[in-house]
Amino acid sequence: MTVRRMKTYTGQTGYVYQYYFVGQRQALNEVATEFIFDVTSDRKTTFSVSVFLLQRAIEQWQQQHGRTLVDAEHYASAKMRLFHAFDEIDNMLADGRRLLIGPEEMEDLLATLGVD
Distance between CA atoms of 47 and 64, rounded to whole angstroms? Predict the structure, then answer.
């Protein structure tokens, strides 16, 4: 049995989210990696949020910066995208279950972390 570490994030929307990382897989309908998180804001209803890191976002970032991103940086960008959704989306259950990371978002997310 896998023990998952529940983490907490207070969004700018005023909600306090609890979440944990479920796993990642190759996306079925996109050329992307899907990062899956289970999320709750009320400790009653848990739902999955998928963050799709598009392959073209990775390729464009690597080309512009002249180096390969490691897996930890892929995960970090997905987690930061999740945090941005917590900050920006009022109803994650209804409006935030499918999040994308394209080339522009990738640059911004990694810059936020100081990755160059």
Answer: 36
